[in-house]
Amino acid sequence: MAITLQKNSLKKRSIDSKLLSEWDKQWVWHPFTQMSQWVQGDNLIIESGKGNYLQDTNGKKYLDGVSSLWCNVHGHRVPELDQAIKKQLSRIGHSTFLGLSNVPAIELAKKLIEIAPKGLTRVFYSDSGSEAVEIALKMAYQFWQNKGQKKKKKFVHLTNAYHGDTIGSVSVGGIELFHDIFRPLLFETLSVQAPYQYRDNFEGSEEEYTQLCADRAEAVLAKHSDEICGLIIEPLMQGAAGMIHQPKGYISRVRALTKQYNTLLIFDEVATGFGRTGRMFASDHEQVSPDLLCVAKGLSGGYLPISATLASEEIYDAFLGRLEDLKAFFHGHTYTANPLACAVSIANLELFEERQIFKKLPAKINFLRDQLNLFNTLDHVGDIRQVGLMVGIELVSDKATKRPYFLKEKIGIQVIEEARKRGVIIRPLGNVIVLMPPLSFETKELKKLTDVVYESIKKVTSE
Ligand SMILES: *Cc1c(COP(=O)(O)O)cnc(C)c1O
């Protein structure tokens, strides 16, 4: 008893919350952040976490309403995941994957192929979602080069797409706000208007809408099929665009079209993968298999940075040849297939079965849907979009005309600040309030999350 007490008090003294806050403002440059505002605000510093909660350096607890930016799956400090890292650490922290292999990376590859959409047979590792996309693009490009179809060099993507922040993945992105400044550095692409039923003002049936959206894709593919090497999309739900979902049948239609027009299909499931949509992958909702699949965020359960690009045997085969043919895929990173990250990813995947995640998810998803229905009564909630546990609530300054709020009104930011006061961490995408709880949220936590967000929206938009 005496020992624990001493330990605790030691721990308390070792963290000087105020000093850390000053150092953070003095030495750190944060991602996607206007730092001139950051240094004036209250910077919340997370010290620990447990289950579905985060705790700051002042001891205040917060519900983790966006899964620590869409990557946490089973909660924080999950005993099985902590243990997997410790066990691996007692063997080795890292060794290179260039010219050597390692135990957990091999085991994880086998596991990934077992759960992936059928037809995907090879796993290429990297460290982030952006890199997984970058690799898929390079593979698709080189695939046609290796096969002697030299003219097939262009990529097709959806408007408003987000595939990461490296130059290649930004090239196939379409979010003006993030990407415009870099336009001159990017390679040329073709874009297809993305489904966005609310802003399309489409009043017909879902089937008709699917047809309309598929026709838009076909127009581009038909016109340019000679020069297109691949089409990339986030299946079912465009995340960073503002949680914009696609109508039923759309991804199957896109699959059929890419086959018809002889181009590769790349699914970016960095956000939608690992149970987020209610199935292991978004592809599973329509039994669609892409030629290349990018996964990251939830792969390690939100513990360590790791990603993977899964490829079909046909793609893999096109890279085989004699050494001097130079058909190999020349790409790799220092930390590719890091053993600690692979070990925790294996344990993360095992937990899906052990915790019977897919048995429990439907009830949670339905509960969340019922809760979100209540938001329709709010005057400034224009559209509510949900796929599984991925939610976007689009706020509008006028519901009848769907007029958006101006950026400078900072409506999303105000809402998340209100939520934070009430002990909930969320993050907006412009005027869209995003909820993406870990799969480990229980109904009472889903209730708290939605109650707090409801109150926060009401407070901010009625002022
Ligand atoms: C987050 C995200 C990425 C980028 O992943 P990082 O690990 O942040 O580089 C790519 N695609 C999608 C769909 C994402 O949501």
Explained architecture:
This protein is an alpha/beta fold and 463 residues long. The chain is 40% helix and 17% strand. Helix 5 (79-89) packs antiparallel against helix 14 (339-354), helix 6 packs parallel to helix 14 (339-354) and helix 15 packs parallel to helix 17. The chain is globular. The model is unreliable at 1-10 (pLDDT under 50). Pyridoxal-5'-phosphate is lined by residues 128-130, 133, 162-164, 234, 239-240, 268, 270-271, 296-297.
Characteristics:
Aspartate Aminotransferase, domain 2; globular; Aspartate Aminotransferase, domain 1; 2 domains; five-stranded antiparallel sheet; alpha/beta; single chain; 463 residues; seven-stranded mixed sheet; binds pyridoxal-5'-phosphate; 40% helix
Strand content: 15-25%
Number of helices: 17
The portion of residues assigned to helices is: 40-55%
Question: Terminal Cα separation, in Å?
Answer: 52 Å
Low-confidence stretches: 1-10
The counted number of beta strands is 18
Radius of gyration from the alpha-carbon trace, in angstroms: 23 Å
- Looking at the structure, the CATH topology of the largest domain is Aspartate Aminotransferase, domain 2
Which small-molecule ligands are present, each listed once? pyridoxal-5'-phosphate
Sketch the major β-sheet.
7 strands, mixed
Shape: globular
* Top CATH class of the largest domain: Alpha Beta
What is the average per-residue confidence, as pLDDT, rounded to a whole number? 95
Query: What is the number of domains?
Result: 2
CATH architecture of the largest domain: 3-Layer(aba) Sandwich
* Secondary-structure content class: alpha/beta
Q: What strand order characterises the main sheet?
A: 4-12-11-10-7-5-6
CATH evolutionary superfamily of the largest domain = Type I PLP-dependent aspartate aminotransferase-like (Major domain)
